Amino acid sequence: MVISQDWLVGYMVSTYTRVRSWEGHYANTPFSAQRTAEVRQAFLEERILPEWKRQRVYYVVQRDTEWSPPLGVVERYRNNEFVVWGPQ
User: Fold this and answer.
1) Which long-range contacts (CB under 8 A, 24 or more apart) does 29-38 make?
2) What is the pLDDT of residues 69-84, one digit of tens each?
3) Mapping DSSP to helix (H, G, I), strand (E, B) and coil, where does residue 11 land?
4) How far apart are CA 36 and CA 23, in angstroms?
5) Which of 35, 51, 85, 88 is a Cys-bridge partner for 59, taking CB atoms 3.0 to 4.6 Å apart?
């Protein structure tokens, strides 16, 4: 599962990989408005949903964001725009 701060990454994840995104395209994501709010809460309030803790989740965060990753994840990748955090 991918939780991405960037909507385009969230949308394209399922196109180019076998991984699902919590929030993909607004028209194809069940409960889209709710999921959008949950992703925002994850990155703005650092509120992680319990169901995310029960599966392998990768968090894609914009580099300029002040964000503390949840326990059990480590930095997996970094480029000029994003940092990807994932399971240990």
Assistant:
1) none
2) 999 999 999 999 999 9
3) helix
4) 6
5) 85
Identity of the amino acid at 1: M
Token duo for residue 53: 């803790």
Query: Which residues face 16 on adjacent strands?
Result: none
Ranges of each domain in the chain: 2-87
Across the beta sheet with 58-62, what order do the strands follow? 2-4, 58-62, 82-87, 73-78
Structure tokens at 72: 């059990």
Q: Mean pLDDT across the chain, nearest whole number?
A: 94
pLDDT digit string, tens, across residues 14-55: 999 999 999 998 888 999 999 999 999 999 999 999 999 889
